Batch of 2 targets.
Target 1
Amino acid sequence: MTIKTVRHYHQRGLLAEPPRDSSGYRRYSAQDAIDLVKIKTLAQAGVLLTRINELLAAEIRGQTAVGAGPGHRPAGQHAGRRVVADLGPAY
């Protein structure tokens, strides 16, 4: 993922811009890294950035996907796992 991509996510409101340290560097948290993986995975799966923003906001509010309940498994769940596996090792 490029710096330009991360900055685009900041501009679109998908990822909050973190505070800077005394050296002027942005300090991203572990949660920011997790959110970036979520955004990248959904984007690679063809989900529009506006929809990703909605999904992340719903997750923050504690809401679940429509129709999701105990024991509910989305039809594409295994495909999603393949996408995550294709991301490669974490850095």
Note: The two ends are 11 Å apart (CA to CA).
Target 2
Amino acid sequence: MPLNFFIAFAYKVTTSQRAAFRASLPDWAQTEGFNLEARTYNHNVTKDQMRLIMPDAEEMEQRRKAVSNLTQSSERFYGSGIKEPL
């Protein structure tokens, strides 16, 4: 799911706020997919309790950059080719 969905849920963005909210986000927050997994033993968790465990937008951006950097690093490594010893 795009990051904008998680942010909207975490901050209770209302229907009337949605257009302004989306306009304030960078394109990647509306297009790049993220997976968010959380588990609890309590089966009676409220939406407000779920919101408390959601990472904030800054943390999600840091994770996105880390994954992007890791992908770029591995592409440079694999793209360099293997050289035979002299």
Note: Residues 79-84 have pLDDT under 50 and may be disordered.
